Amino acid sequence: MTGLEVRDLTVRTSGGRTLLDSVSWEVPFGGRLGIIGESGSGKSLTAAAVLGLLPEGMTATGQVLLDGRDLLTLGERAMRRVRGAQVAMVFQEPLTALDPLMTVGRQVAGPLRLHRGVSRARARELTADLFRLVRLDDAERILGSYPWQLSGGQRQRVSLAMALACEPRVLLADEPTTALDVTVQAEMLDLLDDLIERTGTTLVFVSHDLPVVARVARDLVVMRSGQVVEASTVAQALEAPAHPYTRQLLAAARAVSRLPQEDER
Ligand SMILES: Nc1ncnc2c1ncn2[C@@H]1O[C@H](COP(=O)(O)OP(=O)(O)OP(=O)(O)O)[C@@H](O)[C@H]1O
């Protein structure tokens, strides 16, 4: 398949605990997959395994096929070329991804120079373009700002710009809007939706929040205790969830009334 395919991905701790148990899913290039599940279900570990960033001591078996090439077999050097350039990631809390001691302009320009081999001046221009792309007003000022000088929403836009800098084929987003307030969250999701649409980037969006996933994803994988319990489309899961756990997630989302009730749709 041309796309990203995870096949029988199993992750164990050095103590032999199985954290991911034969996880399989696929997303074609240009597709949008949402991975949903409660805290501890294995969503973040799945993303980490795809990027070759599992914590020390954990081992992964199975396959992570990007356009048919198994990323699990690559060494660290080869994986570093995949990360950022082919599969990029946006994290829940941008402060963990951003260096507090470096201006955000330099943090985005750095990988651009590395991966695209452009001059310092060109990298700065491209970074300003990216900041405008993620709708950061006053891109010039923001280039010279440190992460702590920006709002949470601005920081998340910067990390999105950083992730998109090398025009990755796949964008992995791990709860990228959870730390934001509801209005900023909605703006970020609209922005992400628009950018994905325009650039044709493949999206894998990880969240515990079904309404959020429903906004940006088309296909859906539901995880529980390290396993995939349901794989369908978002529309189908909202219409007729097959697994009791998916029904539970749906009921919980409807209880906080951010999804239409059945009789309203
Ligand atoms: N470094 C680690 N060492 C040992 N166990 C871990 C480690 N990281 C995660 N786990 C365990 O792996 C399981 C899956 O964790 P994971 O972080 O992938 O869940 P999640 O679905 O992303 O949850 P959340 O929504 O809270 O981020 C959990 O049981 C967790 O306790």
TrEMBL record:
Superkingdom of origin: Bacteria
Transmembrane spans: none
GO molecular function annotations of the record: ATP binding; ATP hydrolysis activity
Signal peptide start-end: none
Domain ABC transporter: from-to ranges: 4-250
Membrane topology label: Peripheral membrane protein
GO cellular component, one term: plasma membrane
Gene3D superfamilies xrefs: P-loop containing nucleotide triphosphate hydrolases (3.40.50.300)
Stored Pfam families: ABC_tran
Keywords, alphabetical: ATP-binding, Cell inner membrane, Cell membrane, Membrane, Nucleotide-binding, Translocase, Transport
Protein location: Cell membrane
Family: Belongs to the ABC transporter superfamily.
Name of the protein described by the UniProt record: ABC-type dipeptide/oligopeptide/nickel transport system, ATPase component
Organism: Sanguibacter keddieii (strain ATCC 51767 / DSM 10542 / NCFB 3025 / ST-74)
